[in-house]
## 1
Amino acid sequence: MTQYAEQIYPGYAQQFSVDEVLFEMNTGHQQLLIFRNRHFGRVMALDGIIQTTERDEFIYHEMMVHVPLFAHGKAKRVLIIGGGDGGILREVLRHQSVEQVTQVEIDQAVIDLCRQHLPEHSQGAFDDPRARIVIADGIDFVARCSERFDIIISDCTDPVGPGEVLFSSEFYAGCKRCLNPEGVFVAQNGVPFMQSEELQTTCRRLGPYFIDQTFYCAAVPTYIGGVMAFAWGSDNSSLRKLSVSVLQERFSQSGITTRYYTPELHQGAFALPQYIQDSIASV
Ligand code: SAM
């Protein structure tokens, strides 16, 4: 039985039994591996870093999507950067208020192979008439784009390889330019207990673009090392201060059912552990 050890941290790793290799290739952008593991089902890794698993993907995708969308309350146009497995797109399309979703993914192969080997992630979302898929580098798209969006979700890889530019000031400037005045920007921002410099870098680079820039958290089992942070940016500070009853009303009206997200958890996710608050304060 072969084992797959994630390479993200020297000296500390998680290891999966590879019960079946489903696909492996160098896509030209990144090394892609999809395998089956007895505990997490089908697992995808890019450049040695676990991206998503069948068993725990719902936590990440629900929190990356429903927190900004229920906070905004009337999002019509959404931009997704990255997200090649289709989980973010699937969750965004569950909101009937959304009229169009543009997804900008650099690697067509990730979309193609995830449609084939991780079909439960997208569940047909790539074929939804509201979805527009653009194969491009996210930083180039937001630099040139003349459209405006209510929500921008950066579901990118870690800041290595093609994903590195999606943690740059230039990328954040482009996202701010493409965001409507009441809009919300969110991005995956790693595991602060292990990657505190990633959080601090985001404060330095993203903070200047938004009146309200902070983080919210959720624990995703295969993003090892503690809770995962999601970066938040908006010029409307009230969006983050909605009452649970308002969130509950919007959630109920949406008809969406979830396995992780709840209105109470939405509000509570912005209550940051002291070590994360200290890390932010030290910037
Ligand atoms: N949930 C995962 C996480 O938090 O690590 C990320 C999921 S998704 C697989 C990450 C996607 O970002 C991949 O499909 C990758 O191809 C895409 N990506 C990386 N760099 C990009 C860039 N510069 N522009 C657009 N997409 C990019």
Note: The longest strand covers residues 179-188.
## 2
Amino acid sequence: MRLVMIGAPASGKGTQAHKLTRHFELDHISTGEMLRAEEAKRSELGMVVESYLKHGQLVPDSLVVRLVGERLIHNHLAQGVILDGFPRTLNQALALDKALQELGQVIDAALLIEVPDSAVLERITGRRADPETGRIYHLKFSPPPPEILHRLVQRDDDTTEVMQARLGTYHERIAPVVDHYRNRRLLIAVDGTPAPEEVFQELLGRLSSLNIRG
Ligand code: AP5
């Protein structure tokens, strides 16, 4: 099963991708996490992407496509893959189709999580991540156990100002990506405003009706 997950910042892509990864035993490829890891390592790529992340702008297509391409080649042992936050531009979508075609694979579904802009700010300010497990919490909507509170971290780009930029970038670039998958009848759009488990059950129900093999 090969899925892509599209949605605004803080729409719940990471939360749902983790659940789907566990449920279907998929390889979870999050371009945001990969880019933050490069930044933290202070690698050559990390130094290049730092200012894009800091200002809520998209990292150039060529860099992200290369990163994802390298991961896909090493993915052949997993039962499938979920791409979280990729593609975000039409160029990325076309590059992904080409890379998969070379591997003899196709995208089975593109999951679009829809959440109004008004909801994302509260999600952003309350988001905390556990660096030990990679789990994402929310202080109000998905509270962490009290004993791990001290080690939770907040992302540098989770500020109101950077969030506005991230939202603006999302709305500017995503329409052709959504059309790309809708035209191929691969788009599954779900309401991302109910509780995470409800959104997950909706995704499972919609995916099960597709009868995806392999
Ligand atoms: P990335 O890390 O992908 O950030 P994003 O798209 O802004 O998405 P987020 O990670 O903020 O949110 P999410 O949708 O995963 O929501 P989450 O589940 O955490 O990218 C960061 C940056 O990297 C980009 O700005 C860009 O610079 C660069 N980049 C990444 N990919 C790129 C690409 N392909 N091309 C170019 N540049 C790229 O949930 C958010 C919070 O809400 C959590 O606290 C969670 O607990 C809570 N929550 C989740 N679901 C619910 C719910 N149903 N109800 C209530 N609360 C909920």
Note: The pocket of BIS(adenosine)-5'-pentaphosphate is lined by residues 7, 9-15, 31-32, 35, 52-53, 56-59, 64, 85-86, 88, 92, 123, 126-127, 136-138, 141-142, 166, 192, 195-196, 199 (CB under 6 Å).
